[in-house]
Amino acid sequence: MKTQCSHAHAMPARLEGRALKQALAAADKACAELSEWFTPPRRRVLELLLTSGAPNKAYDLIGAYHGDGRAVSPTTVYRSLEFLERMGFVHRLESINAYIACPPERRGHAAGFLICECCGGAEAFEPDLRSERAAATSAGFKINRVTFEAQGVCRNCRQGEPSPTP
Question: 115: how many CB neighbours lie within 10 A of its CB?
Answer without folding.
Answer: 22
